[in-house]
Amino acid sequence: MLPMKNKFFGANWKMNLTTSKATDYFKTFEKLFATHSLTHKDIVFFPPMQLLAFIHSQFNQNIKVGSQNFYPQKQGAFTGEVSADMLLEDGISWVLIGHSERRSHLQEQDSLIKQKVLWALENNLNIVLCCGEDLSIRENGQEKTFIQKQLLSALEEVNPSHASKIVIAYEPIWAIGTGKVATSEQIGEMHQFLDHNLSSLGFNTSLIRIIYGGSVNAQNAKEILSIPYVDGTLVGSASLNPKDFFTIIDA
Ligand code: PGA
After folding, report:
1. 171 is catalytic
2. Quick one: which of 199, 175, 194, 211 has its CA closest to 94?
3. What's residue 178's pLDDT?
4. Is 128 left (phi over 0), alpha (psi -120 to 50) or beta?
């Protein structure tokens, strides 16, 4: 039997919403939230950087806030970057690492992703580590080899005692923002593969959540969340609408 884990729901806002729009968002979200009991669910918002502290101030302990980026150094001359200490002091306890948009638009390589993973975990941040293949890799049947390489590169030097601070997001690039969701079979197969690989790396997989991302919405969330080895979702576009994101969490 698969272990029971708290389901994890991440809202990746990317470069969307302003302070005024976020204020309206949370008025609606709080009303929905107040009428439902969401026990055994972990909810983390990843807003743009300048909204982090504001959003953190809107919530009690039930909802967490995470940063879409940080730099793996203590402090110093790293223009445009933010450190783990800065985030933690403001109550920001999660970070996204390895998102395909940062890998492609910002040229983040496996070597930087590995440094970020090690730095975040050693500095008490929780991580959502993203992995995912593009369409040509999938069409060539290379997706498992590719994902295994991404996972190994990011986690091979991580001490397995950090397991409970790690969430792995499987996000096939061809499904992100395209409306094209992977099939239940494709998702189930890859999540099981990830689970086995994490075990081989020495991690206790009853402590690591493996979540799916890529065109998750209010209509398909229930089906996706019922697939074995799927411990939650990372949601982009649909998380920008409070009712849709709430429906996904409630599915
Ligand atoms: P999407 O984005 O839900 O808009 O496909 C998911 C993500 O990039 O994390």
Report:
1. yes
2. 211
3. 87
4. beta
- 75 CA to centre of ligand 1 in angstroms: 31
> Is the pLDDT score of 83 beyond 70?
yes
* CB-ligand 1 contact for 132 (6 Å cutoff): no
Distance CA 239, CA 152 (A): 30
Taking a C-beta distance cutoff of 8 angstroms, is the pair 120, 95 a contact?
Answer: yes
Mean pLDDT, range 193-221, rounded to an integer: 97
**Rounded distance, CA 83 to CA 71, Å?**
6
Decide if pLDDT at 108 tops 90.
yes
pLDDT digits (tens, 9 = 90+) for 37-49: 778 899 999 999 9
Catalytic residue among 99, 143, 162, 191: 99
* Residue 101 annotated among the catalytic residues of the structure: no
pLDDT (mean) for 41-64:
89
For the chain, how big is the Rg over CA atoms in Å? 17
Pocket test of ligand 1: the residue of 99, 104, 235, 240 to mutate, having most ligand atoms within 8 Å of its CB, is 235
Token pair in block for residue 62? 């039930």
Reduce the DSSP state of residue 165 to 3 states and report it.
Answer: helix
131 Cα distance to chain centroid: 10
Provide, for the chain, the percentages of residues in helix, strand and coil under a 3-state DSSP scheme, each rounded to the nearest 5: 45, 15, 40
Percentage, residues of the chain above pLDDT 70: 98
pLDDT at 74: 98
Q: What angle do the packed helices 143-155 and 184-200 form, to 10 degrees?
A: 40
d(CA 149, CA 151): 5
> 171 CB under 6 A from ligand 1?
yes
Question: Residue type for 44, please?
Answer: V
Query: Looking at this protein, which amino acid is placed at residue 70?
Result: F
